[in-house]
Amino acid sequence: MRHPAELVAFSGVKAGDTVMDVWPGGGYWSRLFSPIVGAKGKVYAYVPAEIAEFKSDPVKIAKAIGTEPGYGNVEGISDPLAQPPPEHMFNTFDVIWTFENYHDFHDSFMKGASVDGFNQAVFKLLKPGGYYVIVDHAAAKGQGLNHTEDLHRIDPDTVKAEVEKAGFVLDKESSVLANTSDDHSLKIFDPAVKGKTDRFMLRFKKPANAK
Fold this sequence. Notes:
Class I SAM-dependent methyltransferase, S-AdoMet-dep_MeTrfase_Alr7345, seven-stranded mixed β-sheet, methyltransferase activity, Rossmann fold, SAM-dependent_MTases_sf, globular, about 210 residues, 5 helices, single chain, transferase, alpha/beta
């Protein structure tokens, strides 16, 4: 279950915002954010270039969202994960969001993309006071990055350390998607836990006095 109402509230997305949905997949969250930001807002469905050649054609899917009735404020874009953003985009976004994908940034198919570089790019893109929201599948405490590729899980403490290293401060956590019956030992696609893994929700904030 995604608990969309609770997660949208947690994200802080509001009318008029400029939002980036990182690794949008089928576009579920991009479509939810679109009517919230409204005509004065904008949603960028961002596909890392490292996955552009996946058989599912994620770039085509992302770009198609904006052609659907009612979603004209959604724009599909694709660039390398840690490519430094152009200066004219600095301090542009109110919210940058990624759902169940942060662990994948560390995987081998990302062709060595720098997660630290990506987090630094996110910091530059966000307005002072803006939010960087990460929802992902939890690994067992202390496991760090050991199971990002085999189980598709990541230790939330590792995420906190990586993101705070880029200059963010942890603003809020939520247990809405937590599941204490998940012992973190199974791959997220295993039928025993698929759709009901223990997931963490972290909202980081770019300090108001940051540039």
